[in-house]
Amino acid sequence: MLKILATRIEQGCRTLAFPSEEAKLPERFRGRPTIDSKKCPDNCQQCAEACPTQAIQVDGTVQLDLGRCLFCQECVMACPEQAITYTPDFRLASTTRESLMLRSDEIPKVLALEEKTRRLFGRSLKLREVCAGSCNGCEMELQALNNVVFDLGRFGIQFVASPRHADGLVVTGPVTKNMRTALLKTYEAVPSPKLVIAVGACAISGGPFRDGPEVHNGVEKFLPVDLYIPGCPPHPLTILDGVLRLLGRLESGTREEVHQK
Amino acid sequence: MSVATPLALRNPQAVDEAAIPVLPIQEFRDTVLHTVKGGARLSAFFGRLISGKQVKVYALLAHDEVGECTAIGTIVQDSYPSLTPECPQAHWFERELAEQFAVKPEGHPWFKPLRHHHNYRGVPDLWPGQDFASPIPGSYPFFRVKGSEIHEVAVGPVHAGIIEPGHFRFQCHGERVLHLEIQLGYQHRGIERMLAGGPSQRMPVLAESIAGDTVVGHALAFCEVMESLGDCQISPRAQALRDIVLELERLANHIGDLGALGTDVGFLPAAAYFGRLRGEFLNLLMELTGSRYGRSFLRPGGVLHDLSGVLLVDFEKRMKRAQKELRTFARMLFDTPSVIDRFEGTGIVTREVSEELGFVGPVARACGSHRDVRHDHPSGIYQFAHLPMMTADTGDVHARALIRWLEAERSLEFLLEQLTSLPEGELQVPCARAGPNQWAFSMVEGWRGEIVHLITTNELGAIARYKVIDPSFHNWIGLAMALRDGEISDFPLCNKSFNLSYAGHDL
What we know:
Radius of gyration of chain B: 22 Å
CATH class of the domain at 115-260 in chain A: Alpha Beta
Helix content of chain B: 25-40%
Largest sheet of chain B: 5 strands, mixed
Distance between the termini of chain A: 56 Å
Oligomer: heterodimer
Number of strands of chain B: 16
Structural class of chain B: alpha+beta
CATH architecture of the domain at 115-260 in chain A: 3-Layer(aba) Sandwich
Strand order of the largest sheet of chain A: 7-6-8-9-10
Helix content of chain A: 25-40%
Strand content of chain A: 15-25%
Radius of gyration of chain A: 19 Å
CATH topology of the largest domain in chain B: Cytochrome-c3 Hydrogenase, chain B
Number of domains of chain B: 2
């Protein structure tokens, strides 16, 4: 008992001050890519050819689909002019698939929930996670949200055991043929109104398994997605930032601000 | 009985496919049974389509005591006499072979599909009436115990926590579990088929996504098998950096498991402190590789980033602090009587069962089986720097927890030693393409145990067959054995003490 207390005192509080203070990730961390198409040599397709998931299209300018991107840096290494670079910015989430198509230095947009839904979920959101063929990478980052560093509970957000207790589903994985039925049944079991959050490249586009023989290319084909969180896997801060912006609890994402733009 | 001499190999190695002796099925069977009886393990047993009708089957046997592997092959068509009745460790492999190529092992005692998909040969599947479009297990019945006081508990595929899908079917008498049947396959993504046909740009990211908690382990096995095919010798520095990230991955997972075991017995301080300490190792991986799981760091020919200067100094400082914290937290966990009371005697697996069923990794070492690829079949830096093998003998949850702590301690010592003596060398060297008709394998001790990757190439040098064996493939049956005659309420604790991969098994 004394040992436990002594350790408790020594450890102190380890929870991140995010979002009241900015969180900084290391220099090498591969977060939001920025693109400078002005640097591209004429007719160069090297980044597009190097990409293992065909996330990049070049026709005059470079377009990178963050929903397919695995943050593997093959494009960066292939580019002769350093037109694509990864920044340590973890803000990647978006409420629309279109705003994940990057062309320059933009941050994907999260449109906060409308007033009525926000009143329902804004201060208490219960989520049920369904792994539909993910490699367990996204699961581990979702679990990490529950540790003392990220402490999801302080925002009133919680993962619950039963879909009947949930306000929404967090889906990972490309949706394997063998998980399709279970995913749909779990969705049906969640009472309306309900949210669907697609976490990771697999759930958004199939990720590295895209067009594989045993998978569907993501959850969109089956369920209406309210929030896309790219990454392979997304950093816990990427997930947290996305969900808080969806709930209108971070400034850069309130409905008003988005509409003003 | 006639026994042949298989081809001797060392990890990792590529050979001409023709060098592997092809025996008639009876002789092949006798040789495998004889070798396993002599103390070898069945590390791999898999098929490759050689014509529309015929399947070539290979067995890779590991002789741990002499640090050698041997391989033999045979050709089968529609059926062959099953090895399982005399060699139980073949049971899962034979079910896999039957599902993938519709080759029936006659006399297999528990013949059912493994992952629930159609075979790759385009012939009728072996389970008539099995509907692969319907949910798992299709029309295959679960094993049932009958009796008026027997009840059945079904769990999954969607579980209560944030974990992967699988189905567990318990046959219980009161609290007592008479039998547990584990049905997987929900995570099946067809990885082996996607890895074949290349080499392609997709391969490295696919290998890293076999099991997202074992990114480095599978990436290393992938790189080593590709390099043995391309006859590529990477620099000592690249080797050292690879093994550093492999140990970081082991540390993150072992420490995370200790925290999760704390959660499952209601000891929350352990959950909180180990949970954060696990993150420290993920953050070290992120500093070095740009990803918390070490993605896109290992590539055939070497590694993509260096560890030097300020980062190296910082690494050493942070690891020393982590070493101190690990000891404090572990002592707190292992000195708490209520924790020990729940750990000891729960979910026992004996050494006999472990060796008969061919378990690997910490699960095997916790019941006294001496096997560790880093020790028995070393590659990379493990050839020069020896890590002592940690074993226990009680085979219960306590032993599996203890092994994790001890291995984490050894890994930290190893890392601190490596950091002070990083060898010089190029980060990357070119890796040539594979030649025609090659056969290659590599073995890596991932944090869960032995990972094996095997490749055969066709007459053009393209990859004809890519076989992946995650340690979970060997160990899932261990969880069922641990639960036998145990209490159903101990299932979460037992499950966590094994912490096996669904994705790695289902591929």
